[in-house]
Amino acid sequence: MVLGLLVGFVLLARQARWDGKEQQIFLLVLPPTSTQEVLRSIQILIVRPKESTAMLFPLPENLYIEALQGYGLYKSSALFGLADLEHMSEQFVRRSLALSLGIDIQHTIWDSRISSSSSVNALRAIAFRSLRMQNKSTSAFIERYRLWRVLSNMRQDQLAVIDPVSSQMFVPITAAGDTQALGIDILKLDEVVFRLFANPSLRKEQVSVSIVNTTHTTGMATKIARALTSMGVDIVHISSDASPIEHSVIYSASKSLQNSVAAGTIQRTLNIEGKRFQWDEQKAQEYRADLVLMLGEDVASLFVKKN
To answer: Is the pTM for the entire model greater than 0.70?
Structure first.
């Protein structure tokens, strides 16, 4: 019996993407703070186990971001309601937030009890309920266990809460008749996000990336480069190619780069499957980078507005 449990634990650990040591970012989806049940309170939690610190970034309920699949500006707190209505997965919300905010969100955890998680105790309770399967989650059990362990050893003074208002990352805009709507101040947001959320492992591995826009959509490479740069990816070159491709591809200078943090970040953000990661030294030399991201129509279609 004990041996079986140990074997099962080892197998779960092998399936996990997070070792419990490096920086990791979670999307916390909490109950609505208002009477509007369609809205959800969304907070971004970053944990740094090596430093025994964490940061919480609560998104304003009236923040509008660019929703993917052509939905245009959409209230962030209503994104999960939209996903349910249109029968889309949580990836739609996670990737919309990632590309708008430039934050590499790796996991999503839903909670049904706590609408505000600004204390370590509240975060610890959310993580613990996820272990008992009382919360929905996209992470493996062992990853949720590691999150709970990290939070269990953390003091309140080791948790920083980012105030999005005082940081001036969001500014008043006009959207859908909402007089209290907020939008993104890109320059201020990018500066804060890079400083607080960029993955230090990306800086350590020093993998350079070139982005090539093969689509008919002008500015696509710049849009993607902005998000990836905020995440910490080293973008060294942006260009375009007149020969369009349907599906985005990543070319690498060596096979080993397939397991790099940079490759994983790009694949997760743009949903690029492993089979579309190819070893091509000639292509890498042509664009003078370790990785070459060729943007196809699949990425451009994410931003085409619906009629």
So the answer is: yes
